[in-house]
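Morning, I've got a small favour to ask if you have a moment. It would help a lot if you went through both lines with me. I owe you a coffee for this, so here goes:
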Amino acid sequence: MPPNMSRVYQAVLRDKSAPISLRLRRTFGDWLVAKGLPAPEAGKPSQEFEADGTRVRMDRKADCGRYVLEEPRGEGRLRTQVTYAESVPGMTGWVVVRVEEDGETDGWHAPGFVQPYLRTARITDGAVHLTDTADAIDEDDVHRLVGLLSQRDRRVPVVVVSVVPHDPQGARARAERLSGAVAGVGVVVRFADLHAQDRFNEAMGPRLGVFGGGVRTYVASFEPATESYPDRHRPMGGPMIRRQGDRALALVAGGTVGETCRRPLPDDVQRAYRIVSRILAGKAQAGDIAEAMAPRPVPADSDQSERLRRWMLAMNGRSEPLTMPPAAPATASGERVPEGDVRIAPVVVPEPATTTPSPRPEQLSFDVEGLARTVADVVARELRGELEAALDLAAASAGKGSENGEMLRRMRTLGAHVEGLRDLIAVRQGGDPLLAEAEDESDRLAGEIDRLRAEHEILQEEYAEAVAAARKLEERVRWLETRLAEAGQPAFGLSSGEPPFEPTSLMDALNLARETLVRVEIGDTDAEATKLDLAYPTLARAWASKTWDALRALDAFAQARSVGEFAGGFFDWCRSSAGLTIPAGMIAMSESRTVTTNGKYSARRTFPVPEAVHPSGKVLMEAHIKIRKGGYPAPRIHFHDDSGGSTGKIWVGHVGDHLPNTHTN
């Protein structure tokens, strides 16, 4: 990715129909012409042209190619890169589309050529068909939709559009608009009628359905019966869609596009992608892709492999031979899939009366040099984990008898032999032991990252629940303090009878604030707040609670100051604990000098206000509330205090991620 650019769209399109290049060049060329650019010349391997600051470069070599379009967009630029590779043995052809920007764009959506390209063949994400238009689901198709959502290898979100009886055409129009916006990175379906919708909701259950003209985005992976966090499959209610129209649909599309643009490429595409770049740079040959996709060779010397296994079983104290599975077939990505999952059985001490004598290790001689090709895969990779598991099992019972102690010593010896064989193979085959060790460590770290990511998601959910519980306790304490002040005696054990409002998202908090808070006016910041809701659904729940508390504190402060009951600023209000407050450490009443004197940064903090507040109709809002003090993202509320002025209100200009400064730029 070029410096200072962020990715806003990424699609991985699997295309079995050859050739890809002709259909892709035609649809991409039509898109360029629609933008007022010249049409690409057919048959030309490399071409480049520019018009009105827009640059296009198209390269093709052998069975792969890359198109790059760079467009000016405001003060920044938008870069669309399309890379493709035709099908080769062991790999289905694919197209990777990436869009990156370093300025403000008009929203996240698919480039205009993607939808026409999807019409040229049956193109998938590797598991599900990526349609170019919304699919209508009737009552008989509901089982197919449930199967689509539950598809194990699905990578893209599925957007489901519900219907309302009085507006059947509205669902069709919304679904078609969404299908164009998320082309290549999502699948859009709509219900043909209420019967299909009711049957789907019955299958999903009360927390995973969609109804009333609403839209729900089901992310991957998804299993209705075991789903523990339904809110990650983001719903948008029908009233909000009817009230905000295209703007609400743009938020749904943005969440779908954002769901896929940060994902790593599939392993086989990633391997081939690097080689495509080298081919186009003249540093590799066309055949290198097929070579990289080819499955690893199966060891040919089965006799020596069998002798090796028999020797290991003898060292392990096991008398029965281990049956080897047949050679595994290769998948489309070049990886081998075992037909049977063969494992070394847990070590069991044989009974003397029924066990046949085990062959002695010296009777099963083998040639290390001859087995070098098989030991690397069979021993160092496939059996090492099982040997360690067996060693742990033996260690647990090591003190129970002399036979187990002897077995433990044998297994430790075998483990040392395995390590020695691996080192010997690395040296004799001219390999670098340090490189092999680094590769093993890389695999271990990759697994550790996946584990930590899963734990992080669980901790996010637990954190959000803890914040909600803490807020309920705070509400109870405030109520008790009020009663204590009124009655002069303890009032423990009582409750207000009305549970506190628990916003599920930033937009939920903003919408209720607009309806209920009299002294706080919230400007056009829905898009910024929704970006956080869609990108961080679990954390957004905790941020929404803090945002709601902050807006209520601003409203209480403005009410007191506008009638003369309080004379200081909002920071003083929170330090004095005069009423409803938030921690003063969350508040900053000004920005740094670097930010206020740099037009690039100060402009981003200037927001509209009524002319009664400022004759220019806008004002620099330096004061802000830190919803999250550090880290990334770090949500902020920027506001202007006119509680002591002509309007007697607080004007909120921004609720969203940290605005750019010298550290974030």
